[in-house]
Design a protein that fits this description.
Strand order of the largest sheet: 5-4-1-6-7-9-8-10
Distance between the termini: 37 Å
Bound molecules: S-adenosylmethionine
CATH superfamily: Vaccinia Virus protein VP39
Radius of gyration: 17 Å
Largest sheet: 8 strands, mixed
Number of helices: 10
Oligomer: single chain
Amino acid sequence: MLSYLHAYHAGNFADVLKHTCLIHTLDYLAQKPKPYFYLDTHSGPGLYRLDDSESQKNCEYQNGIGPLWEAQNLPEAIERYRSVIQNCNQANSETDLTYYPGSPWLAAELSRPQDRLSFCELHPRENEVLTQNFQRDRRIKVFHQDGFQTAIATLPPKERRGLVLIDPPYEVKQDYQRVVEVLTACQKRFATGTYAIWYPVVKRSTIDTLLHQLKQSGIKNIQVFELGLQADTSERGMTSSGMILINPPWTLWRAMEKSLPFLAKQLGGDKGVYRMEQLVAE
Ligand SMILES: C[S@@+](CC[C@H](N)C(=O)[O-])C[C@H]1O[C@@H](n2cnc3c(N)ncnc32)[C@H](O)[C@@H]1O
C-alpha cells in the first residue's frame, strides 16, 4: 500500500520535532572533519511547496513551522531549525514561507563534500521527484527500494560513523514491528551509529508496545522525545508524535529540555504536551 503523500503534512508539528532533532544531529556529526554516512530509509520527494493543493488541503504547516516563522525568543535549537528553513526558501528565491524542506533536502544542505548520502523512496512518483531534486549532487544515491531492507543491506558504512533516519508512514500496522526488527538487525551491524526513528501517537497502546519491545531488544542508549498538540484521546487522528534516538548526540537532551516546553506552548497553547525520557541507559 503506497497511498501516503507527505505533501499533505509538510511542515506540521510532527515535522518540526523530527527536523529539529535531525538538524541538531547532523550539525553534531559535522563537528568532526571525518566523513559520515547518512541513510534516509523513507525519504519522500525532499522538497515541498506550501502553496500547492496538497499542502493547502489542511494547511497543517499552520500548526508547525507557521507559528514559528516570525516568533521571537526561540530556544537555540528551534532558532537553528528556523534558520535552515529560511535558507531553503532563500535558495529557492523566496523570502516568505513558501517552501518546506524534507529530510533529504536538510541532509543534503547540512552535509559536507566528504560525506555520503543514500535516500530510499518506494512510491514511484515521489521517487521520480526525489531523483530529479538531487541528481546533480554526486554525494547522493537515490534508491527505488524498500528502506527497511536497504538499511540492513547497507550497514555498516565504510565511514564507520553516521546517521540513519527511519521515517515510515505507518500506513500498515506491520511497520511498528518492522521498526523493532530492522533496528535490532542494524544495531548488530553498526552498533555505534546514530538512529533517529519517527512515530505517530494515534493509539497510545501501540506506542507503549513499540517502546517496550525496544527496551527488551538489548539496544543501549535510547532517548525518546514527544510533542503533542493535546493529550492522548480515543478519537481518531494523531495528537502527538515522537522521535526515538539511539546513540544521540550528548547535546540533544539539553537542547530538547529547552525546546519541547517552548514548542508545546507555541504550537499547542494551553493544551500542548511533551515528554522526554531516557528509555535505556548508555
Ligand atoms: C513520512 S514520509 C517521509 C518524509 C521525509 N522523511 C521527511 O522528513 O521529509 C514517508 C515516505 O515513505 C515512503 N515509503 C513507504 N513505504 C516505504 C518503504 N518500505 N521504503 C521506502 N519508502 C517507503 C512513502 O512513499 C513516503 O514518501
